[in-house]
Amino acid sequence: MHDIVDLESRGVPGVFVASSEFARAAEAQAGALGFPSVARVLVPHPIQDRTDDEMRAHADAALDAILAELTDRDRP
Amino acid sequence: MSPAPAPALPDGLAVIVKRDCATCRLVEPVLAELAAAGRLTVLTQDDPAFPASVEHDHDADLAVSWHWAIETVPTVLRIEGGEEVARAEGWMRSRWEALTGVSGLGAGLPEFRPGCGSLSVDPDRVDELRARFSGDRLRSRRVELASAEDEMEALFARGWTDGLPVVPPTPERVLRMLEGTSREPDEVVAVVPPDLVAGTVEKVAVNAVMAGCLPEHLPVVLAALEAACTDEFNVHGVLATTMPVGPVIVVNGPIRRRLGMNSGVNALGQGNRANLAIGRALQLVVRNVGGGRPGEVDRATHGNPGKLSFCFAEDEEGSPWEPLSVSRGAPAGTSTVTLFAGEGPRCVVDQLSRTPESLAGTLASCLRTVHHPKLPLGFDAVLVVGPEHARVFADAGWDRARIVEELHARLQLPGDEIVRGAGGIAEGVPEAFAALTLPKFRPDGILLVHAGGGAGLFSTIIGGWANGDVGSQPVTKEILA
Amino acid sequence: MTTVILDPTGERAPATRERVRRPPSLQGRTVGLLDISKPRGDVFLDRLEERLTELGVRVERYRKPTFTKPAPIDLRHQISITCDLVIEALAD
C-alpha cells in the first residue's frame, strides 16, 4: 500500500492486490495515508496453503478487477 | 465540535465566582445577603461545592463565563430582559450596593478587594474554549487526520506545503490567528489568482498559521495579499512568467518595530520570524487558495529562493531619507507594505568610493546589468542601500530624489551600444534605436530602500519583472488592523 | 484521537489525495509487477504476467527485499522511470 501511494505520487497509476483478510486494514491504512481511493483488489483468503492451480485461478479471477482499477474504461 | 449556543441568564442578578479566588471566598456572606433579597443566580467555575452557603450552579464547561465575556471573578451582572445592563468586577461595596439596590452589604468586610482572573480567560484554556464556542465562525472544510497519520507528513502528502514543513492549521490555532485582525473571517480579502478563488480572511489565517505567523503578523499578510491581487501588481503574471521573480514585500511604518521585524544585519536573510513567516504566508495563500503551483501555472525557468519568502523592513530610524512608503505617497507614520515583483538579490561591492558621484557611478554600472546590460526600460529595480553606502550620500547632502536622479543620469544608454549585434552580442534593441539614447529605467523604475547591517560597504540590487501594463507595477498598501 | 485541521485551499478539489489519471487501455503499455516477497505471491504474479502479455502489455518484474517495509527508494524510482503502471501483490 505504501509503495502504491508513493508510486502514484510519482505519477504512476498503481493497484495493490491483497487477500480479503486485508480489507479492513487496507481501508484504515488508505485513510491514514490521506489517500482513501488508493486502488486495491482483494482475492479470497487464505493464500498460503493454496495449490499452484488455485493461485492461478485467483489471478484469472482478479484480472478484470485489476484492469478496471488501472484503466479509465469503466470511469466517465 | 459543534458550537454551544450562548446560555441565557435569568433576569435579576448573576454572580460568577470560583473557589480558587480569595475575594470570591471573602464575599460569600454577601452572596447569602443578596439571595435573601431577591432573584440571584450564582455560578461557580471550579469547585461545584462552592459557595456552600448559597444555592448555585456549576459553570463546568465555562460556557456562561465565555459567552458573557467574564474576565474577573467575582463579577456581578444585572440582567434585564435577558440582556446585561450593568456589571461590577471584584468586590467594591459602593459599586455592589449601587448595582444591586441593596444597602449595607458585607458588614465587616473591607471596602474594596480586587478580583482574580476568570477561568474563561486562563491562557492555558482560552484556545480550546474559543474553538469550542466560536468554532462555527469557521467555514473551511474540516479535514480529519487518522490517528495513524503523521500530521506533518499528511500536510506534505496533500500538496499543501512549499517544500518545508508547515504548522498544522487546527481550529484552535486558526481562531487564535484570527484574533490578530478586527476583520470578519468570511470577509473576502481578494480574489486570488490563478484559480480566481475568493480568499477570505479565514483562508489567509489558515495559511498564516501554516507559515508560522503570529496573530499580530496577520494584518501585514492581509495587506500584502490585497496588494498582490491588484491589477497593477498582477500576481497572476508574476506567477506564470518564466522569469525568476516572486512578490518581494517591503514593510514600512510603526508596525515594523511592534513586530520586531529585521531591517538591519542580514535583513534579507534568515532568522527573523516576522520577516520569514509573513513572506511565506503570502506565497502559501497563492499556492493553496489560488492554486498557483510550480510546474503548473508557475512556469519559472529557474525561480529563486526568495519565492519561499521574501519580506523585510526598511531601516527608517537609521535612514538619511524619508521612508520608501512616503516617497510613494503614503502619509508619514502609517504602516504599509510595498510589493515588488523581484528576482533574487545580488550584492554591489564598493569599498573605496568616498564621494557620492563615485558611488553613484558604481551603483549605476551594476544597475545597468539588470537582466541584460543592453536591455533598457523593460524592468524596474529595488536598490537596497546599506547604511555605510547611505552615509556617503548623506554626508554629501544627497537626498532620495537626488540619488535617483543621479543614477538615472548615469543610466542613459547610447543606442549604438545596445542595438542588436553591438559588441558582438545578438541580444539588444532594434536597429532603429541606434541613433537614440535610451534610459535603462523608467522615471519611477528605481525603488530606493535603506536596510542592512551597520558594517559593510555594500548595497543590494533586486531586479524586477516586465513593468507597466504588460507586467507588474510596484504597489503600496496601508496595513489595517 | 484524531487531529482536525482546516483545509487551506480554495476547496476546488477533495482534501485527500486522488488517483493518478488512468489510460484508456493497457495495450502497448509497460506494467510493472512488484512482488512483495510473501510466499505464493510469485505464482499469482507469473499467471498475471501470462495474461497481461496475451493482452499486448509489456511486463517488467520487480521484487522487494521484504514485505515488512516499503520498497527501497531506488526500486520505487526504477519502477517509476521504467513502467507506465504498476501492480503490487500479494499480501495476506
Q: Can you put this structure into words, describing what you see?
A:
The complex is a heterotrimer of chains A (76), B (481) and C (92). With 76 residues, chain A is an alpha+beta fold. Helix content of chain A is 49%, strand content 13%. Chain A contains three helices and two strands; from the N terminus they run αβαβα. Chain A has a two-stranded parallel sheet with strand order 1-2. The longest helix of chain A has 19 residues. The mean pLDDT of chain A is 88. Chain B is an alpha+beta fold and 481 residues long. Chain B contains 17 helices and 21 strands. In chain B, strands 13, 14, 15, 16, 19, 20 and 21 form a seven-stranded mixed β-sheet that branches. Chain B has a five-stranded mixed β-sheet with strand order 3-2-1-5-6, covered by helices on one side. The longest helix of chain B is centred in the middle third of the chain and has 16 residues. Chain C is an alpha/beta fold. Chain C has two helices and four strands.
Q: Using the CA coordinates, give the radius of gyration of chain A.
A: 13 Å
Structural class of chain A: alpha+beta
| Strand content bin of chain A | 5-15%
Q: Regarding quaternary structure, how should these chains be classified?
A: heterotrimer
**Order of neighbouring strands in the sheet with most strands of chain C:** 3-2-4
Largest sheet of chain C: 3 strands, parallel
- Portion of residues in beta strands of chain C equals 25-35%
Share of helix of chain A, binned: 40-55%
- Report the end-to-end length of chain A measured between terminal Cα atoms: 25 Å
| Spatial arrangement of strands, main beta sheet of chain A | 1-2
Mean pLDDT of chain A: 88
List the helices and strands of chain C in order: EEHEHE
* Uncertain runs of chain C: none
Order of helices and strands of chain A: HEHEH
